[in-house]
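Dear Dr. H.,

I hope your travels went smoothly. While you were away I took the liberty of generating a structure for the chain from your last submission, since the lab meeting agenda had it listed for discussion. I wanted you to have the full record in hand beforehand rather than looking at slides cold. The sequence, exactly as received, is reproduced here:
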Amino acid sequence: SVDGKIIIPEEVLDFHGQHPISLPDSNNSPSQSRGNNSESYLSASQGRVALSMAKDMDNTYSIPKVKSAIKDLLRKESSSLKKYFKFANPFRGLIKSIAKAYDVVPQFVYLTFLESQYFRGGTYKPVVSSTETSTGAFQINVQTATHLRMKFQRNSIGARPASWDERMYFAPSACAAAKYIGQHAKRFSNDKALAFLAYNRGAGKTAQYARNYGYSYKEISRRNFAGSHYINKVLAVYFVAGKYKGSKFDSGSSAPTQLPSRWVFPSGSIKDSNCQQATAAYR
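The corresponding predicted structure, in token form, is as follows:
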């Protein structure tokens, strides 16, 4: 230890804290990806953009700040992460269907680990931000909802929108988030991992970082910038979830399997027709 702090070796410990994780090298094949493989909590097996996105996310594993985020996640938030995986379990099929419809990795949903308590609390209740107009599991604000052409109420900061607002429900808000991530992935095609930074900081700010610091997250990560904690943590969840099966996070048969009766689908039809088709089998 140094100054009373425990020093973890450079290699990331496994989920039992005993042995280094040994994972295959990353390439475009799902079976050889660190975060997108047969042991992953969620994984993409098709989709040109989705598989390319997984490859770009895998390429961030060597970034020191990402490795540090993984260590912090395992050290400080193991309990929260285990609850997250447990209570997200009934949604896995729905998430995969949505991700396929918008050609993004299903791991886009890991945004919700940072954005809200929707899964970690186990109650599946939509949360309204007290400092912004953001609402729901993906904390979509009024500006983004307008851009994505959602059905929503223009609520004021901290105000709970009407019950018909699509941001209040997991299915339409997940579709909107997947659509938004997909747009960013296509814009930042040189490194699709930047789509997660753009989700948090906006496309304009991310483009500015890319112009100023380099067109890959590896280059940008060398600087201190607003939003770095966010993308590093999303990537950390991606890599930890890539070794889910058989780990201490695997809830097995104790995880719920049925979608909750409320706050998944609105009573009316979802505005986005692509989302309607992607989610129809789960209503």
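Two observations you may find useful: The chain is about 40% helix and 0% strand. The chain has a mean pLDDT of 90.

With kind regards,
E. W.
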